[in-house]
Amino acid sequence: MTTRVGVVLFPGSNCEHDAIEAVESLGGKGELIWHGEAEVGDVDAVILPGGFAHGDYLRPGAIARFSPVMTAVARFAAEGGPVVGICNGFQVLTEAGLLPGALQKNRGLKFVCTTVELEVSSTRSVLTSGAAAGQRLRIPINHFEGNYTCDEATLRTLEAEDRVVLRYVDNPNGSTASIAGISNEAGNVVGLMPHPERACDPLLGSDDGRVLLGSLLSVPAR
To answer: How confident is the model at residue 61 (pLDDT cuts 50, 70, 90)?
Structure first.
């Protein structure tokens, strides 16, 4: 059965078609979900893509978290549905309280756009279940506010519960404990700043993103 992935479109999203193309290159079926919708529909997984939802006014994701669809996304996640937030989508998930911590401006107040090396820290998530612990992946990043931060108690919890899913090998933005991605306690909600959808074709420099998105698509259909 083909895995159906809903990709939420906020005003200002700019990676939604990249996400759909990547999903479909892996055999899935991608479909857009407008942020004003009250339901996510009959999908097996949800992606919140990168971009600048609502122009990043106030804070990235601060307005998007009030979009009607986010109530449906939260309900979908509570029922065990896989939800992945990429870059701006990660910011939205933290603003919505679906993931702990926050994303702040990069160290040195510089926008970063490059390819980084990541290390898989946990395979206990819908995004990393098909990877190997310690595996190295080359994935692009493209952000100004990608510096993940949390208090010490939250960090201890994330590490104790094996919820840090990806770390930067060479921290590009000052992120706490070199964190590039985290999950919720159940492992079905994941946020990451790197863009796996931009690393699904070797002609683009790397196809390591296929390991991550392939994991998402391997989740049993609902």
So the answer is: very high
Average pLDDT over residues 66-78: 98
Tell me the domain boundaries of the chain: 4-217
Taking the whole predicted model, whether its pTM rises above 0.85 is answered as yes
CA distances from 217 to 20, 44, 84, 191 (A): 12, 9, 11, 16
Give pLDDT tens digits for 133-151: 999 999 999 999 999 999 9
User: Token match 């892996």: residue?
Assistant: 26
* Token duo for residue 184: 């919720």
CATH of 4-217, one of 3.40.50.880, 1.10.760.10, 1.10.10.10, 3.30.700.30: 3.40.50.880
In 3D space, the residue among 171, 216, 215, 211 whose CA is nearest the CA of residue 193 turns out to be 171
Strands 136-143, 112-120: pairing kind: antiparallel
Q: Report the pLDDT value the prediction gives residue 1, as an integer from 0 to 100.
A: 77
Q: For position 220, what pLDDT does the model report?
A: 72
Using alpha carbons, select from 206, 159, 211, 199 the residue that is nearest to residue 19: 199
Query: What is the full DSSP assignment across 70-123?
Result: HHHHHHHHHTT--EEEETHHHHHHHHTTSSSSEEEPPGGG--EEEEEEEEE---
Q: Which residues are designated catalytic? A: 87, 195, 197
